[in-house]
Specification:
Blueprint (H helix, E strand, L loop, with lengths): L1 H31 L13 E3 L2 E8 L2 E7 L9 E4 L8 H8 L3 E5 L8 H17 L7 E5 L2 H11 L6 E5 L19 H11 L3 H6 L9 H6 L3 E5 L12 H10 L4 E5 L12 H12 L2
Parallel strand pairs: 4-5, 4-6, 6-7, 7-8, 8-9
Antiparallel strand pairs: 1-2, 2-3, 3-5
């Protein structure tokens, strides 16, 4: 038992050091090139947890940007891939630390190329026209894992880190139900439509998050996951467990918070651990 505790402690220290290295690399790269000055959004009459909330549309998708009362140097931001407002304690703490909170609703597109194109459009808008940091921290809950990881794999140089709570890492697992979980027929149909696949094509597809981790490992992107090993909806062994095994094999840094007995329920008992991870990796 002592050996296991020591191993876990060493693993957390290693992940923290990777975060600091990514932070240093980000800061140094910013010194080497000019950065677009921060351009605030027009004053909003709506608020979210006491902070100004801005709602607009980009590339046909609804966007929410929440601005901190005082913007941190370098204009850091956290980009949530799914279920805005659910278990918001992490985002509220990040706002207090000076980070923007961003959300784009592409949930039913399951991380497809159409979803990625919309994320690209929003990224360009925020970084080129509003001076946001070039490397946001990504967060995802459940099916948002498909969105966050597919975009991160396509743009590893644009990602500071990823925190994923019980994420879907392979659509064959969920909503497809080709493993230990039951199929979600409605969501599986939406997924096939989003990719333009029939079922046979979907089963041959090798572009799920578990299949494209090498770019992230090569870029040194630190990952943090949280999940119940007995999750009945998104099986651990087919998603977080498999992703963690492959990422570590590639030399990537990943830590996993085990939420024993929680089932498929978002949130962690100690959100400060998540907050510290995102601030260390995502803040310039």
């Amino acid at each position: 038992m002592k050996r296991r505790r020591h191993s876990a402690k060493v693993k957390r220290v290693g992940l923290f050091l990777v975060c600091l290295a990514a932070l240093c690399e980000t800061s140094c790269s910013r010194l080497a090139r000019p950065h677009q000055a921060y351009v605030p959004f027009p004053q909003s009459r709506t608020s979210w947890h006491g902070y100004e909330r801005h709602d607009f549309v980009v590339a046909g998708s609804r966007v929410i940007v929440v601005t901190p009362a005082r913007v941190a140097a370098g204009v850091p931001w956290v980009w949530r891939a799914s279920f805005f407002g659910q278990r918001s304690e992490v985002e509220v703490a990040l706002l207090a630390a000076g980070l923007h909170v961003v959300y784009m609703d592409v949930t039913d597109l399951c991380g497809s190329p159409a979803a990625m194109a919309r994320w690209d459009a929003l990224y360009d808008l925020l970084t080129r026209e509003h001076g946001f940091s070039s490397r946001p921290a990504l967060t995802a809950i459940s099916r948002g894992g498909l969105i966050a990881y597919n975009w991160a794999a396509a743009h590893p140089e644009r990602v500071a880190c990823v925190f994923a709570d019980m994420p879907v890492c392979d659509f064959k697992s969920w909503p497809g139900g080709f493993g230990r979980a039951e199929r979600d027929p409605d969501q599986w149909k939406k997924c096939l439509v989003a990719y333009g696949f029939d079922e046979a094509q979907a089963l041959r597809f090798e572009g799920n998050p578990v299949d494209q981790l090498e770019p992230l490992a090569r870029a040194g992107v630190p990952l943090l996951h949280a999940q119940d090993p007995a999750d009945p909806i998104v099986p651990f062994s087919e998603n977080t467990g498999l992703l963690a095994e492959r990422y570590e094999h590639l030399g990537g840094a990943i830590d996993v918070i085990l939420k024993n007995g929680r089932g498929h329920v978002a949130g962690v008992e100690s959100p400060q651990r998540v907050i510290d991870f995102l601030v260390a990796c995502g803040a310039p």
